Amino acid sequence: MYLIKIAEINEEIRDLEVRLIGDDNEQLGVMSGKEALALAQEKKLDLVKIAPGAKPPVCKIMDFGKFRYEQQKKDKEAKKKQKSATLKEIRLGLNIEKNDLETKSKNAIKFLQSGDKVKVSLRFKGREMGYTQQGFEVIKKFTAEIEGFGTLETPTKLEGRSLVAIFAPNK
Questions:
Q1: Where are the beta strands (DSSP E) in 33-149?
Q2: CA–CA dist 17, 30 (Å, integer)
Q3: For 158, phi and psi rounded to 5 degrees?
Q4: Helix, strand or coil for residue 115?
Q5: Which residues form the Translation initiation factor 3 N-terminal domain (predicted)?
Q6: How far apart are CA 145 and CA 139, in angstroms?
Q7: In 10 A of CB 10, how many CB atoms?
């Protein structure tokens, strides 16, 4: 089928001469616009201008309603197949134990394997803000745990009271 942006249909086509393509994709040659419209109406189909910039413009005889329906169906199908990467968040604490870190990293690995990005945030509470260097070390340990499954997309940075790092899945 043609990927066309339809400009004019049936009576809207006011060109004196058009190159006509039949409903079975055969070239019918150059003829007047009125003759082409009469041919289309005789077959109970629509006359659609598919190449308005050509000399003379190219028109095709087709069932325009059916064409639009199939085009919408294709667009809908293409939209279904698109996968948008969502951002999943994993929250860590400054004093997280080894087993808890392993559990969180396993969850992050699951997310990365399913094609999602993972945002790891480590929130500092109260006086913990004085120990930001320890926070960077916790993020480093987490990075080592998920090393084969994701890559660090944005480097670890301090945003307010949180350390944030974003991981993207490996290709």
A1: 46-51, 58-62, 87-92, 117-123
A2: 7
A3: -90, 120
A4: coil
A5: 9-78
A6: 10
A7: 15
| Per-residue tokens: 15 | 């060109």
Q: Does residue 166 register a pLDDT over 90?
A: yes
Nearest by Cα to 114 from 152, 148, 145, 88: 88
Q: Taking 50 as the threshold, does the pLDDT of residue 31 lie above it?
A: yes
Alpha helices for the chain (secondary structure H):
33-42, 64-81, 98-113, 132-145
Q: Which residue has the tokens 């006086």?
A: 127
Tokens of 12: 């809207």
**Which amino acid is residue 86, in one-letter code?**
T
Asked if residue 51 lies in contact with residue 6, where contact means CB atoms within 8 angstroms, the answer is no
Q: What is the H or E stretch that residue 163 is in?
A: strand 162-169
Rounded to two decimals, the pTM is 0.53
User: What's the DSSP call for residue 96?
Assistant: -
* Spatial CA neighbour of 51 closest among 6, 111, 105: 6
Summarize pLDDT for 42-79 with one digit per residue, the tens. 888 988 888 888 888 898 999 888 888 988 999 888 88
Residue length of the chain? 171
